[in-house]
User: What shape does this take?
Amino acid sequence: MSACILAAATALPNHFADQETLVAEFRSLWGEKHFNLERMEQLFRAVRVGGRYLSLPLAEYRALETFSARNNAWTRVATELSEVVLRKALDRAGLLPDQLDHIFFTTVTGIATPSVESRLIDRLGLRLDLKRTPLFGLGCVAGAAGIARASDYLRGFPGQHAALIAVELCSLTLQREDLSVANIIASGLFGDGAACVVLGPRAPTSAPAPEVLATRSVFYPATERVMGWDIVNTGFKIVLSSQVPDLVRARIRDDVDSFLAAQGLKRSDIRHWVCHPGGPKVLEAFEVALEIPRAAVQRTWDSLQQLGNLSSASVLFVLRDLLESGEAKPGDFGLLLAMGPGFCSELVLLRW
Assistant: This one.
């Protein structure tokens, strides 16, 4: 028995800054150190992000001088947002907290022990025998990978319910002394947010819910330095290569075609494309490689423009938008896909 996606919910921090405000802030921060502020502004605008939600008021970031201070803020805000999205997702799924059997929690922007999902047990009155699986290090691919791993679990325990929570507070990873092109792009691209998906058996009287028909993980050898973190004294230093769009163009078409063929399908059978908004060049590479029109991934483009790249949570925001649109009809196929550190991709086939 395959699991169904019963509900998806999202939450954003209370603080928003448009991209022009952030450009001005970074000009002030880096003005005495960066030899080419005009180039910095070009890189910020090239990512086509209109603004981003931030974990803290913009004025409070400069006081976070140590990794410890940033990570303490991360733990507090991540726990708060996790509680919000889990409550919303359970409510939308028509479930009580004590009906949840397993939580998968993913992040790549902070660390906490006890892990964040364990801090929700008392807050929500979750069961004391709740299974917990915290995931760290998957980055942008983790929204898709988390759905895949939750559905894998539910195939072994049919009738149970699982939740995936993805929380990414990218603003709290800022390396203010790093003037590399990779860090400037990341500082202009990534934002903060949280999402939750609840999976389980479809109730006979419930609204149409997409079934997870199949999943596939694909690892690309010799790509360790394409994306990730270097762990330094000040926290998480971005590793971000310009090779990502090239990898998409070189690999994703054959990977998708092979995956779909194993299910007796082809790309033309896919009605809904749920793609991670990695950035403009990555999305353009998806369009070219998969031979799909801009309209097929418009929700992804909209998410990028409105929120930035939220790492693992982003593809779940796009999924939520699709579910809320009511556009998907019974019998439709959808493909949810993301790529991330490793370098790797994760493919999830859905059917309504």
